[in-house]
Fold this protein.
Amino acid sequence: MSAVRAVPTTESGVGRGAQRAALPVLVGVTGLVAVVSSLGAPLIPSIAQSYHVSLSAAEWVLTATLMTGALATPAMGRLADGPRKRQVVEVALGAVLVGCVISAVSTDFAVLVIGRGLQGFGLGLLPVTMAMARSQFPPQKAGRAIATLSVSVAIGAGLGYPITTLVAQIFGFRAAFWFGAITVAVALLLVVLVLPSRSDGRSRRFDYPGMVTLGAAVVGVSVLLSEGGSWGWTSLRSLGLVAFCLIMMGLWIARELRISDPLIDVRQVRNRSVLTADASGFLIAIAMYMFLPIIIEFVQVPVASGYGFGTSIVVSGLVFVPLSVGTFLASRCLPAYMRRFGMRSMIPVGSVVFAVTMLFFATEHRALWEAFVVAGFGGIGIGFTFAAMPGFIVQAVPASETGSAMGLYQVLRSIGLSLGSALAAAVLLAYTTHGHIYPTYQGFRVTLLIASALCMTTAVLSFFLPGKISGRPSAPTKEVEKLMEEEAEVEGVGLMLADERLLTESGE
């Protein structure tokens, strides 16, 4: 009788061969996140022309995705804590695949928006893939695997915009959605074939009422910002929607404070450092998506309109390249900056840089090269601000509370992105003449001025809100410093990392 050869396993109980196959699949899924995020802003002007809607209305193809992502991320993160991580990934990829197909074949603008909303589930995949890496690999390898995932997002972001915009330029914007659908289908097939059906983890009760009330409030605010101008801000419909949103938020906060296992632990805002990061992240996120789509749309607006540069989709997509370079440079400068000036000044400095950048483009935009320079400096400001926020949180709370504190920050930041896109659409709508596609130049200018004011408010708030700090603040640990660097690198596409790296390093 022949001996049975044992299959080598690791400390996590997963075979080494399965581990080697799992990491490329997880890297491919995180790269998908960058591809999905690139199917938004550069395509808005083409979609507006094709569907004969205003540029402000076309903004919904971005707002819908961000809004779904804001709501899906905490839900997917909570479900990924349990043993069925692969099923969460499969459902999310399936929703994105259906969304891409719907967007590619749609002949009605409302149907296109629904398809884009489904694609927002892809924005919640990054924390889930990190949770899978943590459960698949032993502690000494999990940290490196998670770092690889974050790098793949940064690389995917740099490649996603040029590739998808080139496809859209040659074959039309619908082809970009077909390209996304093919990419998602391949990723879904690999997930089914390679990743284990069950993972380590403890199932927890899911807060469905909390998810519903939070979702209703976010959707209500987004609709109000987008449609309030046409309804009239003091109309009965607008005031009724305001009341509805306030009631939903009140119910959500009351429930999260009452239950023992909340979807998001709102109690953490009692810590002033956590509150600083939460408030700053929310405001900067709004400003960020009042800046990114606007600059991309501005460079595509035909010169005949009296402003804009009339560039192609490809050129507008390339504007994101210096943005990614700027966030990368910010991440490389973080260690030296923190050693010399500390972490306290990072959010104010980054906010001021971002504010000045937008103020410059609002007043000076005579040549196309200025858009590329502005994007680069904007990336530096974005990198500095968002990199500092996880550091504020991690150093302010006990290790056992890091997850809940980061969860609240993640949700507020994601909601800020969707509200920023909706607010930009509202401003553009106010400056768009009925029957016209493009707003007047003042619409773009006012949007950038509002975003700049939000950044200056963030600078002041983040400087005074933490209060006085006695003694010299301790330097961040290597793990926190690495998280901050990686956070800066992925912010150029509006994504963020979960706290899985810290949990892995600490062995919790």
Summary: The chain has two domains: 16-197+263-466+474-506, 208-262. DSSP finds 20 helices and no strands in the chain.
